[in-house]
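[scheduler] slot 2 assigned
[scheduler] job type: sequence-to-structure, two independent chains
[scheduler] chain ordering preserved from manifest
[runner] begin chain α
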Amino acid sequence: MAEREEGLFGLGALDKVDRIRRGMWVHATSPRPDVGLTPHTVIHTHDKLVVRHYAAAPAEGVERHGTPVVIVPSMINRAYIVDLEPGRSLVEGLSQLGHDVYLIDWGVPAAEDADEDVGYVLLTLLHRSIRRVLRHAKAREAHLFGYCMGGTLVAMYAALRQQYLASITTLAAPIKFAEGGRFRDFVAPLDVDRTLGADGLVPVEVMKPAFQMLDPMGNWTKYEGVEKASHDDDTLRRVMVRERWLEENVPMAGAFAREFVREAYQNDRLLDASWQVRGEAVDLGKVRCPTMVVACERDFITPPAAALPLSELVGADTVRTEVLKTGHIGVVVGSMGPRVFYPLLDTWFRELS
C-alpha cells in the first residue's frame, strides 16, 4: 500500500478540512457555559462599574490574610476572565488561599459614558472603588492587582494615589508601548475619532482585527481544536467557556480611547512622566510601594519587552519580576493558574505582611 500522502493538498489536508468543518459546526451549535459562579456580594456601584466582594474562604490549615486584594481587569474585555470556571478561577483561588478579594467589574459602557476619559477612570471610578473597598474591609491599604490594560491603569493609579496601597502587581500589562508587537502595530496608527459610532463609543468590531492579527491562522486551528475537544464533554465545556469570553468584548468610551491610544500607543508617555491626568503628572518613579511585575513568555498581546520595563521605572525598594512560561490568557485560566500563578500571588502578598 502506498504511503499516505500528507500536506496541504494531500489526503491529510482533506481530513484536516473535514475536522475544521465539523469544528465550525460544533462551535456554532454548542451552548456557552455559565460564568462568574464564585459566590460574591456587590459592595459598590458607580455608572456601569460594579465592585464584587469574594469573602475569604480558606481551606483547612490555611491562615486568613488581613489585607484585601483588589483586582483590576482590562476595560475592553469582560471581567469574568478572573472567574471563568470553578477550579480555574483567580478570585476563587485567592479566596481559598485566605484572601478577601474585590473585583472591579467595569461593565459595558453606553452613550452616556462616551465622555469618560482616563482621569475619570482613574481618579473617579477606580479611586472611589478603592476607598469603598477599604471601608468595607476595615483596612488602611489594599494589594492592587492589574491584568493587561488593567495593570497599566494600576501602575498609573499608584503613581497618583499610592497612599492607599500595600503593593501593586501587574500581569501582562503594557508599559513600554513601542515594544507592543503586532497589537501595537495595529493600534498605534488608529484615528480614534474616525472609528466612533453615533453613540460616541469605539465599537468592538474595530478591535477584532487587532486580535486576529496576532494569530492570522488562529480561526482554523481554533476550529480544529474545537473538533478535537468535542469528543469529551468536560474538555469541550472548557473550550467553549473560553470562547464565550473571547466573543463578549465590550466597546470603549470615545474619550478614554482617544486619550489612551494617543498618550500610550502613539507617544509612550509613561516612559518619561509626560502624561498629565487632571493636571497631575503620571510619574512612575514616584511609586514607592512594593511592586511585582509578571510577564508571560508566549504573550503576543503584551510581549515581555512591553511589560517588564515597569520594574526599572518605579522607585520602590522592593521590586520583583517574574516571567512565566505561558500565554496571556492561560496564565489565569489554564492549568498554570492554580498550579503556579495563584500560589505566586499568595506568597507575594504574605511576604509583605
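[runner] end chain α
[runner] begin chain β
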Amino acid sequence: MKKLIAVVCAAALCAGLAACGGANKNLTDTYIKVGASPAPHADILRQAQPLLEEKGIKLEIQEFDDYVVPNTALENGDLGANYFQHEPYLKDFNAQNNTHLATAAYVHYEPLGVYPGKTSSIEALPDGAKIGIPNDNTNGGRALLLLADLGLITLKDGLDLDYFRNAEGALNFSEYDGIAENPKNIQFVALEAANLPPSLPDLDLAVINGNYALGAGIADQVLTTETPETAQVFANVLAVKEGNENSKAVQALIEVLNSETIKEYIQDTYKGTVVPVE
C-alpha cells in the first residue's frame, strides 16, 4: 500500500510540474530552443551555436517577426528562452499579460534611430509632419524621449529616462498622454514596430528599433540616434520563464553570449548599430 501511495504521489507531482511549466522539453541540460528576431538576435545566436556545442549543448533558433508571440511561446513552454527584447518591455509585458518571464542576462543594446521618409532631414521637417513610432508603451515612449531630446516636442513632467529605468510594472507612456507641447503639430502614427520600415514612403520620418532597421537594410540611412546613456537602459536581454535563470543550458548560453568572441563579432559586424553590454 505504501508503495502504491508513493507511485500515485510521484505521478501527481510530475503532472503538477508539467502543468506549472516546471518540465520543459525545450530546455534541458543538453538542449535549449531560443526564440529571436531575425537580425541581429538570430544572427548573433548562430555565432553562439558552435561555442555552445563545445559545451555539449545544442542550441535551436526559432525566428519571430513580432514582439508578442516569442513571449507567449516562452510562457507556454514552447521555447526555453528568448532573445529579442529589452527589460522595460519585458516588465511591461508581464504586467499587461500576467506572464512570468525574467531577465537571465543583458547582452547588447541598439540605439533607437530616426530614419527619413518623405522628408530627408530633421531640420526640413514641415509643420504637421507625420512621424511613425512603435505602438507599444515602452518603445513608443522611448521614441518620444528621443524626439523630445531633439527639441521637436516637450514631454510632461516625470516622463523621462528614469521613468523607464525605475519601472517595475505596466507603463502608460504614449503619444496620447505624454506630450505637453507640440509646436510643429506633428502627427504621430503609431504602428507595430515591424511595420515602420515599409511605411516610410507614407511618413515624413520614423523612429525605428535597430533590429528592424537592420532587417530592412536601412541602418546606414539613420539621421540620428539615442545617446549611449539612454540606449543602455534598453539593453536587450536573454529572457526565460521565472525559475529557469540558473539552469545549466541557460547559464552556458549566457557565458557564450557575454564572451569576448561574441562581443568582437557584434562590434565588427554592426559598427555601432548594435553594441555589446560591458
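[runner] end chain β
[qc] chain β: The first strand starts at residue 31 and ends at 36.
[scheduler] slot 2 released
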